[in-house]
Amino acid sequence: MDFATWDIPAFEGPLAQRGIGVIAPFDLALERELWRWVPMEVSLHLARTPYEPVPVSMEMAHLVSNSAHLAAATRDVLHVEPEVVAYLCTSGSFVNGVDSELSLRKVICDAGAPDAVTTSGALAEVLGQLDLRRISVLTPYDEDLTTKLHDFLGELDVTTVSSDHLGLGGGIWRVSYRTIAERILAANHDAAEAIFISCTNLPTYDVIDPLENALGKPVLTANQLTMWACLRRMGLPIVGPGRWLREVS
Fold this sequence. Notes:
Blueprint: E1 18-24, H1 31-36, E2 42-48, H2 58-64, H3 67-77, E3 84-87, H4 90-94, H5 98-110, E4 116-118, H6 119-129, E5 134-139, H7 143-155, E6 159-165, H8 177-187, E7 194-197, H9 208-215, E8 219-221, H10 222-233, H11 243-247
Parallel strand pairs: 1-2, 1-3, 3-4, 5-6, 5-7, 7-8
């Protein structure tokens, strides 16, 4: 085939891609949802933390946030030259508090990433951008791990006015939209300025807009915030639902 005869001004190949490196816990099952949060010109390059034979718990949060594992996973994605590397895990980035979240980002940058984001760091960033000081929380975790999230928020001077947790030790990606919506409505509090849904393995994409319309306040979710923080560093607007986030992107 003679490409010279084609009536194409410049046949140079596919659209140039801009990369985000993603370090995910070994049990992540929502890669398809992640891709819904980014524009066509952005590629996601995933690396996973090592498998750990424990249920979702405080122990798992500590294991999947191991600094050596994060550094190794960062190096695994650097060859594709991502503009930012994200640690896509809520519990692993809040379990040891605000100072530890900062340390995790430093680990990623020290391993060679040009910039770093964590899910809980993105949460802190959005709460500051929207000046939110009172929120409701829904998690899929047990009570102990959920309390650690409250502690993290407290360090940010954010009050958890109401909270609910599903108490799941696994299979979080199987939770239905109906269950999530019902539990969010139950967890909502009149004094809450927003609702945060924790865990990057909990499907939330299609419930955000209906719930924001029903409640009249931001509904913030883990994957949404992580991708928002990455795209913001890349100078790109947010893709997908979330009216309040679009206003600060």
